[in-house]
């Protein structure tokens, strides 16, 4: 799918399906360290939104790869995905609903806050 046709958001079940299928993508948690310490989705890379501009270089090798970003409810990750697209990461997507919806739909029993 051409980059311009990739939706800005992706839902939790679709991300879970990608994980289960072994699809290669970078799964970024843009919450703060304290949030990640409390609860996290296995396999994610912590890169807080507050540090994104100064640490974006860490993502350079993934510029042409699929990047999915999540946060608590989906607001921060949507802003990060938009910003990354402006920086040339044309396939960046936000996981709608964030880890809160993940905890309800994908991993019931996961700590919610």
Ordered list of secondary-structure elements with their pairings:
Blueprint: E1 9-10, H1 12-21, E2 26-29, H2 33-38, E3 45-46, H3 52-55, E4 67-70, H4 75-86, E5 92-95, H5 98-105
Parallel strand pairs: 1-5, 2-3, 2-4, 4-5
Could you describe the 3D structure shown?
The chain is built from five helices and five strands, in the order βαβαβαβαβα. It is an alpha/beta fold and 113 residues long. The radius of gyration is 13 Å and the shape is globular. The mean pLDDT is 95.
Quick one: CATH class?
Alpha Beta
CATH architecture annotation: 3-Layer(aba) Sandwich
Strand line-up across the major sheet = 1-5-4-2-3
Span of the ends, CA to CA: 36 Å
Spans with pLDDT under 50 lasting ≥5 residues? none
Shape: globular
How many independent structural domains? Answer: 1
The total count of helices amounts to 5
Number of strands: 5
Secondary-structure-based class equals alpha/beta
State the CATH superfamily name. Rhodanese-like domain
Helix content: 25-40%
The fraction of residues assigned to DSSP E strands is 5-15%
In round numbers, the mean pLDDT is 95
CATH domain topology? Oxidized Rhodanese, domain 1
| Biggest sheet record | 5 strands, parallel
**CA-based gyration radius:** 13 Å
